[in-house]
Input
Amino acid sequence: MAGKTPIPAPLSDLDPDTAERPALLDAGPRLLTPEEWADAATEELPAEPQPPRPATLAVAVSVAALSLTVLAAILAAVLLYLVTRPPPTPDIPHGLSTVLPDDASASAPTPPPPPPDDRTADELVAAGWDTVGKDAEGGLALFELALAASPAHAEARYGVGYAELQLGHVDRARDPLCAASHDLKDPDSLRDVRMLLARHGLSCPPRAD
Output
């Protein structure tokens, strides 16, 4: 009859492989077939992020250490250049002298020479003996002034030799002491000169007549 609704065949009469299942039966969850389980097992899962390996960390640390070493070398070179570079030359206006004094003393006026000593050779020798005990160089200068005033002054030569010994100049003391030993008239001074020569192992050559 055209107005009747067709009655579906019983489920037991349907072929399980070819028959269409009612929509009501497919609405709920179903179990996977063995083939579907096999396909799901072979699917590749997304890879999980891996922590950095020790080798990668070592390379990063090495690169950072090398960078710090290079930076330290550059800073050291800059500091060395700043310390050792010559000072800048000041700009000198045109027409002025380009010669600059090394220090302030170069432009200072030269002190005048000392006034000539008007004392006699005997007075200079006496002053030399008063000075040589506390100032060997000052005493030597006075004895040399006495010799300049009187080159044959035996006591002045004795004083020069004595002052040289006080300054530790044994070799330079030999000639003036030997000359004094030949010319001294005072026996006490002559004895002192010979004692000084013997004490320092100095011998005088024979006097040429």
Q: What stands out?
A: Residues 121-199 form a domain with the Serine Threonine Protein Phosphatase 5, Tetratricopeptide repeat fold (CATH 1.25.40.10). The CA atoms of residues 158 and 180 lie 5 Å apart.
